Amino acid sequence: MNFYDGQGFAVRRDANVGKVQELDGATICVAQGTTHELNLGDIFRARNIRFQPVIFERIDTMYEAFFAGRCDAMTQDASALAGALTVARDPAAYQVLEETISKEPLGPFTRNGDEQWSNIILWVHYALVEAEELGVTSANAEEQARGQNPTVQRLLGTSGEFGARLGLDNRWSFNAIKAVGNYGEVFERNVGQASPLKLRRGLNGLWTQGGLMYAIPFR
Description:
Blueprint: E1 3-5, E2 7-12, E3 26-31, H1 35-46, E4 51-56, H2 59-67, E5 73-77, H3 78-85, E6 94-96, E7 104-106, H4 115-134, H5 141-145, H6 150-156, H7 162-165, H8 172-180, H9 183-190
Parallel strand pairs: 3-4, 3-5
Antiparallel strand pairs: 1-7, 2-5, 2-6
C-alpha cells in the first residue's frame, strides 16, 4: 500500500457540518453499484443516521448534481472528493469532512507473474519512504551519498550490492529519489499542501509521526 484513503463526505461549508453524525436526515449523492453505496447504507444504519440516497450511474453526473445543490452531501473516496472540489465553480464554498467511514488502501498493480518488476515497484516505494525517514531529498541526495551514515550508504547504493538482487545497478534508489524526491516530497507535490487537493498526511505519515508508512530495512 502506498496511499491510505477512506470513504469521506463533501459538503457545503455554509451547511455547518463537521461530523458524519451531523448528516442525519441529509440527502447524499452516491455512485450506483460501488462499495461507497454499500458502505453508506451499512454504516449509517449501524449508527442510526437517517439519510436519503440520490444514486447516479456516472461519477461526472453525480458531481454535477452535487454542485447544482441536488444533495446535501456527496460520498466517495476522500481523495477523489478533494479532486472533484478543485473543479467546482467556487471550490472555497465546499469542504471534505476529516472523518471517514471505511478503509480504502490503495497501491500499484503489476502484471501477474512478473515477479522481478513487482519487486522493483515494491522496493522503490520502500526506498522513497526510507529516504524521508533518513532526511534524504531530491536536493541533497548527492551530498548524502558522500556521507558516512551506513544506512544512507546502503539506501543510495554507495555500499552493498542491493541493486543486484533486483536486477538493477546500485544507483537505482538514488536515481529514483533524485528524480522525484522522497515519499513526503511526492505526497506534498501531488496530493498534499503544495497541490490543489491540500490533503493532510494523516495515516500516510511516517510511522515515527503516527502514520502507517514503514519501510523494510535495507539490509
